[in-house]
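Closing statement on the zinc ion sub-project.
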Amino acid sequence: MEIQSLGATEEVTGSCHLVTVGDYRILLDCGMFQGNHGSEMRNREPFPFEASGIDAVVLSHAHIDHSGRLPMLANAGFSGPVYTHRATRDLCDILLRDSAYLNEKSVEWENRRRQRKHMPLIEALYTQEDAARVMKQFRGLAYDEPRQILPGIGLCLRDAGHILGSAIVELTLTEGEVRRKLVFSGDLGQSGMPILRDPSLVEEADLVLMESTYGDRLHREPRQTHEEIRDIVAQAGHARGNILIPAFAVGRTQALLYWMATHYEEAGLAAWQVFLDSPLAIRATNVYYRHSDLYDREAARLWGRNGKRKLLPNLSYSRTTAQSIAINRIRSGAIIVAGSGMCNGGRIKYHLKNNLWRKEAHIIILGYQARGTPGRALVDGAKSIRIFGESIRVGATIHTVGGLSAHADQGELVSWYRGFRNRPPVALVHGESEALQALAERLSTESGAEVTIMKKNQNIRLDKLPSKRTKPHAQ
Ligand SMILES: [Zn+2]
Ligand SMILES: [Zn+2]
């Protein structure tokens, strides 16, 4: 009985862990590597196991760094079920197709370059049809409903509060006389975030596999974030400019719209026209609308008041290219929320081209910007950036607002671990080395946890761990 980490080891992306119990093999997540130049090549590497030998996949949440290689797994021969929350299934239906589309586009572009240089052509990682096909293997579950997925193997999903449908995965494993409980944190949300409930606490485990994204950082108070955004809106109003918000389609966009709905009067938003200019974010927002039963108390109350009406009276969805182009004519009074979140693709590039040079414009950066992206250049104070081969001078004011992060910070990660009353050993994944070191240090000194920082392909024998649980093993 063991767990082996195949991805998201000493890095954030590519989440994938293999659990072996007797003859059964379960994969926790099957995510893409993202962000750096080598990641495209790493996604092309064959799986280090027989795909047809996997009995089931358990998927923590819809983000591509957790779900993105599922169509490839199915193409390689995996024909079993993918257990996940039903909201994750709905989000994956959108995100996997989009991921296929983006990959097909970039491969098309790459192949044109290769053709010119007489180099061998490459194929897309998977097509939109492949993405649609693997969706048939998804089995949507609810939170807090234990179920047996294989003989001797029980699964229960708990709310992780990270994005809609995100789950903490509890696996109870039996092999002969040996019984162990493995808890995988998935990605843990920040407490008190808009819309979603706070991450659930789990009381006991024999091993905790835990994310560490912000293991070395503390977030600002949500109240400060509210004041920051409100002040930016006021400044931009005085300057008579537009506000551009590059946004990630799932999670951040909905948190932002919700923020606007709850601060509509106070932030003077009635004076603005708000555009959600991203077909992907619009589809994801509709999935959020459909699963209002998963909201926290405040969001449920707002939902009850607004019913099926739009969150904001002045919100326009722009789906078509023509609708998006029409926004270009607006010189002031528009809040434009468009993808991609790091400004390296999508419609935000057109809006930057039209607004970035204007001194009255304001840009709000909400999320992590990877090195090498235009978004990172803006955050780092670049005087100009290149968009569509043209150098655009930065005249606009750039604001970085970190408080809407979808991830728990160091303090919250530690207190989530402290929810385990039996202080089980921890294996840390999904973090860069500084974050892993800092979190390991705090967990072991403050909570007396036995911590392992997982290396690539490292495995832990679960049957060799002494079980410190007090409760009987539930199936
Ligand atoms: Zn995530
Ligand atoms: Zn993640």
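The longest strand covers residues 167-175. With this model delivered, the sub-project is considered complete and its resources will be redirected to Aim 3.
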